[in-house]
């Protein structure tokens, strides 16, 4: 799940960059609109006036399209952030229900959550103020209750459902 916050962070940077770009573009447009209005009094048929009028119109359209893109990006980020929060909550609920089904003790639940988060035995022991041997024994009981042989299978138990159908068979088929 660590990729999702990175994606959201990149989206926020993109939104900030697009916002700055729109502000600079708006300032340029204000300048050109003023210049076109000033040139309108002189010779509205000159090539200089026509060029500036076209550039100003393009800038105005750029601002409109940029504003639309910014709004869309912001809406997409909000939707992704909301989906991430729902997924986090749903996964947490799934894990909690499974821990209950396995009849894990409160201490085993804590250790199980920390193991799923990727902490090693020493880190779990330090966080819980327990001996590493105690944590190893708790992990062994968790794996036994879960019917798995180790940490990888324990984590895979929960990730497998998130992957849906799993990895498609991409091996080339032998010609028959």
Q: What does it look like?
A:
The chain contains six helices and no strands. The chain has 176 residues and is mainly alpha-helical. It has helices at residues 3-42, 47-101, 106-116, 121-128, 132-146, 151-162. It starts with a helix and ends in a 14-residue tail after the last helix. Helix 4 crosses helix 5. The protein folds into two domains: 3-86; 102-162, Winged helix-like DNA-binding domain superfamily/Winged helix DNA-binding domain (Arc Repressor Mutant, subunit A, Orthogonal Bundle), CATH 1.10.10.10.
Features:
single chain; 176 residues; mainly alpha; Arc Repressor Mutant, subunit A; 2 domains; 6 helices
Coarse morphology: rod-shaped
Q: How are helices and strands ordered from N to C?
A: HHHHHH
Number of domains: 2
Instruction: List segments where confidence is low: pLDDT < 50 over at least 5 consecutive residues.
Output: none
Indicate the percent of residues in helices.
Answer: over 70%
Portion of residues in beta strands equals under 5%
According to DSSP, the number of beta strands is 0
Mean pLDDT: 83
What's the short story on this structure?
The chain has 176 residues and is mainly α. The protein contains six helices and no strands. The chain folds into two domains: 3-86; 102-162, Arc Repressor Mutant, subunit A (Orthogonal Bundle), CATH 1.10.10.10.
